[in-house]
Amino acid sequence: MRKSFVFAIAAVLVVLYSSLFIVYEGQRGIVLRFGKVMRDAENKPMVYQPGLHFKIPFIETVKTLDARIQTMDIKADRFLTSENKDLIVDSYLKWRIKDFSSYYLATGNGSISQAEVLLKRKFSDRLRSEIGRLDVRGIVTDSRGRLTTDVRNALNLGTSDDDSSADSAIASAAARVKKETKGEQPAFNPNSMAALGIEVVDVRIKQINLPDEVSGAIYQRMRAEREAVARRHRSQGMEEAEKVRAAADKSATEIKAAAYSQALVLRGEGDAEATKLFADAFSKDPDFYAFIRSLRAYEKSFKNDGNIMVLSPDTDFFRYMKDPTKQRDHVNRADN
């Protein structure tokens, strides 16, 4: 009897434990009964918020969906600009589930991989379209923020055309959601991610590169442009240097000419003053002046060895050498 009671208590605890399930923070729960989704009055899947909930044990199972923001890294791909130039663009986007019931129906039982396939195709088409409207300068400068904003809005709100295969796939999934549910549905563009219950939070471009076959030519052209600018600046500098040098040479020549002219004037004035002084001095005693000139002539004539002079002894040049008394009288007169 006691064993039966213990067994009954254990069975009740197992059934009670099996009937409880917890939806953790950052998750949402959807209950499946015999593999079919539990739906509300509008035939939408019932979504359970975080907390403790009950279910029928062994009959109902719970599938959880991640409510957190997801990051999807986009593989770098080649895009063509409005200038018909290729760019290698590396990017990523962040998304989350906004309408869990629509997301569950559109993605085939809440498959994240299926949602990312649709999202990646739509993102690639829109990014290619937006880049095709801009040139390289606009993409790598101020227009990058506007570019990513336009792509995000196009993903969330949809576009006017649905010719691409990605738009067709999204529209097909949105039509399946509308068909499986009842009641009035929000007015979404059928090729928008909002129709699938997905919200794109952010779109970012990590890196923009040129293809290898193009980057070399671009760098060579940039180098040639910089070298041309350098040559222009160098030639302008040489021209300015020549102007400065010519002005300096002209100024130096003018200064030298003025100085030389002034020196000649001063020298002429000095020579005139010296001549006047000599003339005044020698005019007082012409004989003494003649005697001094003769001595200077003797000094210049006989100061070097080997000088030969052929003169007559009676010449006036030797008159002071012939009469020493006369020479002594001139010296005494000069001393006095």
Automatic annotation (TrEMBL):
Compartments where located: Membrane
GO cellular component: membrane
Pfam family, one: Band_7
Topology class, membrane: Single-pass membrane protein
Keyword Transmembrane helix appears in the UniProt entry: yes
Keywords for this protein: Membrane, Transmembrane, Transmembrane helix
Coiled coil: none
Domain Band intervals: 18-222
Gene3D superfamilies: Band 7 domain
Membrane in keyword set: yes
Database matches in InterPro entries: Band_7 (IPR001107), Band_7/SPFH_dom_sf (IPR036013), HflC (IPR010200)
Function: HflC and HflK could regulate a protease.
Entry similarity comment: Belongs to the band 7/mec-2 family. HflC subfamily.
Protein name: Protein HflC
